[in-house]
Recover the amino acids of this structure.
C-alpha cells in the first residue's frame, strides 16, 4: 500500500499479483477496479459502517437502523413507504428492517385508518432510549469521518455525492 497526498493506493506489484491470482482461478483480468467510483464508494461505505459498529455500544444497531430511527423520531407517524424513500430503501429492504426493529422492541407500527395497507411508525420508549444513548456516539463517529474528509473538502464532497445520487436515482 502506498500513501501519496493522503490517498492510499495498491502498489503496482500488488495489483499485478492480484491479477495473476484472479487469472489462476479462472477469472478474467478486468483491469484496475480501484478506478471504479462505485467500487470505491462501496468500500468507503463499508469502512465507515464498520467504524460506526465499533463505536456504538449496541451490536444490533446498524447504521441503516440508526438512520431510520432518527427519521422516525423526527417524523412520528411517518409511513413505511415515506421512510423508505427518505433513506433510499425499497419495499423489499425497508420491510425486513422495520420488522427487525419491531421484534427488537425499538419501533411500533400502527395500521393507517385511511389506508389499511399502510402503517404509521413510532419509536417505542426503548427505541427512544437507545437513540438518545447512541446519538452522542454517532456524532463523535460523524466528526471522525468529517476529519478524514477535511472541513474544507466536506461541502464539495457532499455536493459530488448528491450529484451521483441525483444522476442515478
Amino acid at each position: 500500500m502506498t500513501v501519496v497526498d493522503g490517498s492510499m493506493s495498491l502498489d503496482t506489484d500488488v495489483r499485478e499479483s492480484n491479477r495473476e491470482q484472479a487469472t489462476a482461478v479462472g477469472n478474467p483480468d478486468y483491469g484496475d477496479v480501484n478506478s471504479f467510483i462505485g467500487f470505491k464508494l462501496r468500500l468507503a461505505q463499508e469502512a465507515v459502517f464498520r467504524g460506526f459498529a465499533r463505536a456504538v455500544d449496541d451490536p444490533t444497531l446498524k447504521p441503516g437502523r440508526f438512520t431510520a430511527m432518527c427519521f422516525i423520531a423526527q417524523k412520528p407517524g411517518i409511513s413505511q413507504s415515506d421512510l423508505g424513500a427518505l433513506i433510499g430503501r425499497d419495499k423489499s429492504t425497508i420491510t425486513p428492517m422495520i420488522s427487525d426493529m419491531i421484534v427488537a422492541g425499538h419501533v411500533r407500527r400502527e395500521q393507517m385508518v385511511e389506508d389499511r395497507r399502510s402503517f404509521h411508525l413510532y419509536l417505542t420508549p426503548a427505541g427512544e432510549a437507545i437513540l438518545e444513548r447512541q446519538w452522542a456516539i454517532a456524532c463523535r463517529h460523524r466528526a471522525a469521518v468529517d476529519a478524514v474528509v477535511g472541513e474544507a473538502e466536506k461541502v464539495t464532497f457532499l455536493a459530488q455525492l448528491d450529484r451521483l445520487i441525483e444522476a442515478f436515482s
About this structure: The mean pLDDT is 85. The longest strand covers residues 107-111. The radius of gyration is 20 Å.
